[in-house]
Amino acid sequence: MRFVIVTGLSGAGKTQAIRSLEDLGYFCVDNLPPTLIPKFAEACYQTEGKIDRIALVIDIRGRKFFDDLFESLNYLKSKQYRYEILFLDASDEVLIKRYKETRRKHPLAQQGRIIDGITLERAKLKELRDRADNIIDTTKLATRELREKIERIYQEEGQIEAQLSITILSFGFKYGIPVDSDLVVDVRFLPNPFYIPELKAFSGNDKQIQDYVFSFKETQDFLDKYTDMLNFLIPYYFQEGKRQLIVSIGCTGGRHRSVAIANEIYNRLFAAGGRVTLEHRDINEDVRGGGNKL
Questions:
Q1: Do residue 144 and residue 232 come from a single domain?
Q2: Does 13 carry a binding-site annotation?
């Protein structure tokens, strides 16, 4: 089991750190009172490996409970529970700037100056910083750079390399654009098999529809160009810290053209080694009486 205590200065990036660890598969808990760490650790160990990577954010927000931290860490050591401490730090100037930009109050300077709260917090955290296994100074780090550092330290050997998770989602415009879409493409420019009586009852999962949709040169040109664009965009999305991409492909009813196109784009990205899933949101809507196609 890997048990990580995430701590450090308020405003130094603990929230981003815990998000990165969560993306790496860690079970994460934010602001757990330190006095509960022993019970929580025991519960995790009793899962017999089902929960084997844990990250806890413990910081000055715990107020008087924070003083129980070292007692809890000593208990873990006495029980031979292995743990490690990740400490996030940053310069006073940068911390002050971040607080002013967010207009939040420092937890130790509710009524006074931010710098006074930072100074007091540094003093309270000094011993914890001295005991840290890893210290990351975020003064000059962008969010993406912090994520990369976290991944280098805490990605397990043999663990699947972090990738952008891509969902290819077909839908019908008549039922609304999926609200979680990142990219939306309209394939209603393609000939509609709905108007061919012998094809109307089939869906884009059937060979009859696929043969029809892919028989047009504009379909092949579109697939080549759009797949090429996705292959161009994906590394840059990942580089900027995005970990999930929803690519929504729509036709009128979401049963014929969008399904066939979504299937093909999924196949191309999957063949290229992408971490990709496929969903057809509206494929059965008209079958259930959702309305007539236009």
A1: no
A2: yes
* 183 annotated binding-site participant: no
Is 97 annotated to bind ligand? no
**Within this chain, do residues 119 and 55 fall inside the same structural domain, yes or no?**
yes
Query: What CATH number should be reported for the domain holding residue 98?
Result: 3.40.50.300
pTM of the model: 0.59
DSSP codes, 168-223: EEEEEGGG---TT-SEEEE-TTSPPGGGSTTTTT--TTSHHHHHHHTTSHHHHHHH
Known binding residue 254? Answer is no
pLDDT tens track, the chain, 294 positions = 788 999 999 899 999 999 999 988 899 998 888 888 988 888 888 887 778 889 999 888 756 667 788 888 888 888 888 889 999 999 999 999 988 887 777 887 777 788 988 998 899 899 888 888 888 989 888 888 888 888 888 876 544 455 678 999 999 999 999 888 899 999 999 999 999 999 999 999 999 999 999 999 999 999 999 999 999 999 888 877 677 889 999 999 999 999 999 999 999 999 998 889 899 999 988 665 544 333
Amino acid at 198: E
The answer to the question of whether 43 is labelled as a binding residue is: no
